[in-house]
TrEMBL record:
SUPFAM superfamilies found in the cross-reference section: Porins
Signal sequence interval, chain numbering: 1-21
Gene: dmsF
UniProt keyword terms in alphabetical order: Signal
Name of the molecule in the record: Membrane protein
Pfam families: MtrB_PioB
Length: 663
């Protein structure tokens, strides 16, 4: 399981490599034959020197729960202070520098610095600290002692939080037709997350997080008048510094996530021929994982040579056939080939031990996606778009080896009414594929009637509507709504139906030169139905889950007071989420719900001391409450040891005085 998660993580990192996009702006025009000395600006002056602002904020925080730090940026209580800066510098030769910092000293902060000369070179350095807090008073009957979980007679209290510290350095050079860049990034992740072990009863633990991820990117770009190409390399190495875990009476009850590394080489390009633009990309990658394994009975493997090779390719074409019609298409190919070692060893079957040999399975995934689309301008007020998408997936050793999704969609844009923009989109898709559970490796362990939702036949219908109206020059209204429904008509055991619908409203009012007002409201509903079987046969109990989310916000700013020196403002946000689960067997019974809400208010006064200096007084208040029926106190259930009730119910206050100086 750890290997799969790390491979997914590495894949996401690979996808973050620089994205290629051609630049056909005026700044890229070929001016080699233009006598530029005849067009020099005689009155232009270089804006040299410093500009921007620096500030220092100091204040007081009062909170009842560390969870409030997710909103306030720091878990500090009492007096706090932090500097901020956004400063730019430029000299007469065109060299520039930019420094930006935010809440330095807080557990959520960043600093960015760049320097160089546009069109020649740039150097960037970034620092970011991201901390997320789950609970400040998690409890456990186990505490850590050099990789061993030791029982304690008194509950051990600790903080469930994770911190990520990132440092990145990047350099880029440009000269005429080519451009090169290199980037190095390192991230340290630490803290605690909730996990569980079997001893043989389930025990929830606070799992130590201590890992480092280093990544390196380098590339070269070559471009011409109507083409551009890029060759790049990306490498990533993950190192887990956390130890495997044991109990005082049982060794190796938890295996730490193994180290791994990933490498990728990509070649991409884009070419424009008259009104046709063609682009493509070809990527090859390799991911390896070669840590030692924990020894256990029935498994003689001491080391597992994990290796996955990936191949990705993309081809896109878009062409303007006439002043009214544009057509396009694309093909995406992705292949994940698992070349990891395969071993034979004795293994428990579903019922008992039968002395037969089993093998660990190396699964492969191949994906092809085809897209065709067209955009037609019926008239100045009506534009129509339509398209067809098809995705084909082939999974080896899966309950269903082949699936294909076909989607038809269309979008109509209407501008026929003054100051009104209407967009309507409709989509219909269908998933089908090969025979389900044709693989002996999975069919013997699962209910033959069960269908996994991501493999099952599915019909999806989706409708979206958005309206933008500007009835007055000081008022704008945005309304959007969506409805989507998924039907799994062939599923007898598993997810049988789901629907997702919601509405959003945004208002912006510039009432006068000094008064601005905004407001928004959104609500979303997600409902799903599932059929299950306690008797390992046909469905004999059912689950209905109803989720609801509400967000409401408003704010006002009032300026022009005290001879245009004072601006007052207020912002308010309310959010609410609710999840109800109902079990139907002989009757319908609530399973236990989840409920949370949040009130957040900010009041501020901004006073201009002079043209360069200003003071800002801010008061923030947060009221947060949640309750999860699944949360239980320590040792409340006899068969499960929990981390205690991790629900929240608190008030938090923050008062800050900020002094800023405009350079």
């Amino acid at each position: 399981m750890n290997f799969k998660l790390n491979i997914i993580t590495a894949s996401l990192l690979l996808a973050s490599a620089p994205v290629l996009s051609a630049n056909f702006a005026v700044s890229q025009a070929n001016t080699t034959k233009v006598e530029q000395q005849n067009y020099q600006c005689q009155r232009c002056e270089v804006n040299s020197g410093y500009r921007g602002n620096v500030s220092v904020a100091a204040g007081y925080i009062s909170r009842d729960d560390v969870h409030a730090a997710n909103a306030l940026g720091t878990d500090q209580d009492g007096f706090v202070a932090t500097p901020n800066a956004d400063v730019k510098y430029q000299n007469n030769d065109g060299y520039q520098a930019h420094l930006q910092t935010h809440q330095l000293g807080y557990e959520n902060s960043f600093a960015q610095m760049s320097a160089g000369k546009p069109g020649l070179f740039t150097v960037d350095a970034d620092y970011q600290l991201i901390t997320t807090y789950q609970s400040g008073d998690a409890q456990s009957n186990l505490y850590y002692d050099q990789g061993t979980l030791v029982s304690s007679t008194l509950p051990y209290v600790f903080e469930l939080s994770q911190q990520r510290e990132k440092i990145a350095l990047q350099a880029e050079v440009q000269h005429d037709m080519y451009q090169g860049y290199v980037q190095f990034e390192t991230e340290d992740k630490s803290g605690y997350t909730n996990s569980s072990i079997i001893t043989p009863s389930p025990v929830n633990i606070g799992l130590v997080v201590d890992s480092t991820t280093d990544s390196f990117t380098a590339g070269a770009i070559l471009n011409g008048a109507n083409w551009i190409t890029e060759l790049s390399y990306f490498g990533s190495q993950y190192q887990n510094n956390a130890q495997d875990l044991s109990l005082t009476y049982l060794d190796d009850v938890y295996a730490a996530a193994p180290d791994n590394e990933a490498h990728q080489i990509a070649l991409s390009g884009q070419y424009q021929l008259d009104s046709t633009v063609m682009s493509g990309r070809f990527i090859v990658g390799r991911m390896t994982q070669d840590d030692d394994l924990i020894s256990m009975n029935g498994n003689p493997i001491q080391n597992w040579d994990g290796e996955i090779e990936t191949t990705d390719a993309t081809l896109k074409v878009s062409s303007m056939l006439s002043s009214r019609l544009r057509v396009g298409g694309s093909y995406d190919y992705s292949n994940r080939e698992n070349n990891s070692s395969v071993f034979e060893f004795l293994q428990y079957t579903f019922n008992d031990l039968n002395d037969t040999f089993k093998e660990n399975i190396a699964t492969d995934i191949e994906r092809s996606t085809y897209k065709l689309n067209a955009k037609y301008r019926i008239s100045q007020d009506y534009r129509l778009q339509a398209g067809y998408d098809r995705e084909e997936i082939d999974r080896s050793y899966s309950a269903r080896e082949e699936t294909h999704d076909d989607t038809l969609w269309s979008k109509l844009s209407i501008r026929a009414v003054d100051n009104v923009i209407i967009d309507i989109k409709a989509e219909h898709s269908n998933r089908d594929g090969s025979e389900y559970q044709t693989d002996e490796l999975t069919s013997s362990e699962e209910n033959a009637l069960m269908r996994k939702y991501y493999l099952a036949n599915r019909t999806r219908n989706n409708v979206e509507l958005s309206v933008n109206h500007t009835p007055l020059n000081w008022l704008s209204v945005d309304i959007s709504a969506h409805y989507a429904k998924d039907d799994y008509d062939d599923t007898l055991i598993g997810l049988t139906e789901s629907e997702d619908y919601g509405v959003n409203l945004n208002l912006n009012l510039n009432i006068s030169k000094h008064v601005n007002l905004y407001g928004f409201a959104s609500q979303q509903w997600i409902n799903s139905a599932q059929a299950s079987s306690q008797s390992y046969s046909t469905a004999d109990w059912y689950t209905d889950i109803e989720d609801e989310f509400i967000n409401i916000g408003t704010g006002i700013s009032y300026g022009g007071l005290m001879q245009d020196k004072l601006t007052l403002g207020a912002d308010y946000l309310f959010s609410n989420s609710n999840s109800d689960t109902y079990i139907t067997s002989t009757g319908t019974t609530p399973y236990g719900d989840y409920y949370s809400y949040n009130h957040s208010t900010s009041l501020y006064a901004n006073y201009s001391l002079s043209n360069e200096m200003a003071l800002k007084l801010t008061y923030r208040y947060e009221r947060y409450y949640d309750t999860d029926d699944a949360q239980m106190s320590l040792d409340e259930p006899a068969s499960v040891i929990t981390l205690g009730e991790l629900n929240h119910n608190y008030n938090a206050h923050q008062v800050m005085l900020n002094f800023s100086y405009l350079l």
